[in-house]
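Appendix B. Chain record.
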Amino acid sequence: MKKIILSLITAMTMSLAMNAQQIETPFAYPQAPDTLSTLEERTSYVVMKFWDNCDFKKVMPDTAKFNRAFRDYISFVPYAYTDSIRKSANALLNRFKDNPKAILQIAEQADRNLFGPEAPFWSDEVFIMFARSVLANKKISNADKAPYMEKVKMLNSSQVGANVNQISYTTRHGATHDLYSQNGEFIAVIFVDESCADCSIIMLRLETDVAVNALVKSGKLKIVVINVGEATSEWKKEVADYPYEWEVGSAPDAAKYIDLRNMPNIYLLDNEHKIVLRNMSVDQLLRICENLNLQQNTTTKE
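Structure tokens predicted for this chain:
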């Protein structure tokens, strides 16, 4: 399988190089030498050498050409060594350390191609590399830094092992609660929105699962369902019959504090509100609950 991927990457590199010449971009893309045999080696070479033939004085002012080149550059990131990506990104950014306009231009494309809804894939680590160059540049205004600061903080607080950000919400009964007020050996936080076609099935599966119910009743598991939309009358009616042991609330600003680019989204927290798992499916949660319940039953019998 890896050989197939390597062949595809090689073909893609050659195709990009030929296309660059055909559409008259200002520089030719590099091709990895045949002496490099592994996927990681070849893509890392391309990433490291990508901008070598670029005449930035011509490319940067031409937004369309730069955007296309950056998108092609990013396409190799998933397969390259992290160290090569870091060195390449630092070299590109250091070239423009005294040019805040160029740094913002690069960061905007990193946002579009590594973080935003149009991105071909998400890479938090690589996006943060580019975002930090904005935050560290003294010539860039606080206003221009603000959206990158918000995203970096949100991403850092959404990683496994991090303490989840404090998120306040309005419960289905109208009270104001927050995540840190919820206790349990494990806390499953399920974020949903109005576009969630599968949410009714997800809730039904959780509500009828023997292991989930046993863990909830024993206090080992706390279920928290947070709607990231407004607490409309329709929503209140929909959640009125959720189990009374569940904490159910609405937090329209939740995406400012935790990564919710995938919806619905399930985070599993420990009793200190640290993230154990993220971007979980309901199947993953049910398997974990089954194992926890088996452990609980074994301990009880002993």
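Further analysis of this model is presented in Appendix C.
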